[in-house]
Fold this protein.
Amino acid sequence: MILFQEATQEVAEEVLSEEKTLSVIDLILNGGTGSIIIITILFVLLFVALYIYFERLFAIKAASQIDKNFMHQIKDHVSNGKLEAAKVLCAQTDSPVARLTEKGIARIGKPLEDINKAIENAGTLEVYKLEKNVSILATVAGAAPMIGFLGTVIGMIIAFHQMATSGGQAEMGQLASGIYTAMTTTVAGLVVGIIAYIGYNHLVVKTDKVVHNMEANAVEFLDLLDEPM
């Protein structure tokens, strides 16, 4: 009797162990064809979101790096009338601030309003470059949960269809495919959406800092031109 109880306990522990080690892949595969298709789409969206996030993050980080002495050197060159040297310095510095400054230097001698307008136009182009493809992240953040909920609806339809065709006598095993589809696609859609949403907002904050830096340096440059030589 004791040996039988020990054997029963061991079997129960093995069953619990198997339940605890249910992998994500098992959850996906057990959801049926509908779950596999929708989660594959979500994985593609996740890959796209991560690629855009890291590509833009490195690009924005590179755009935010500039020599602290850059504007001091520009001020010295412009004050001494060395406009060509200032242009060369701008050309050698790969940053939005340098490109805006170069546009302003190229129009020195014209009314200050014209110089300001040229810098603003150049700034608009630089912001567009920084925000390239970032809107796709926002789209993924909104679309991924909706695709996940679509899988939920499909899964519930499958489950209720099985109940209807069985006269309301369907067993849980027969409903498992629809329930798996409903649950796994919902979770996957929310996870992808949350990741894309956080990535999008992080890039927006980083971009705003670069834009603020561009504006501050543009104002400093215009103040320099407005000073009496």
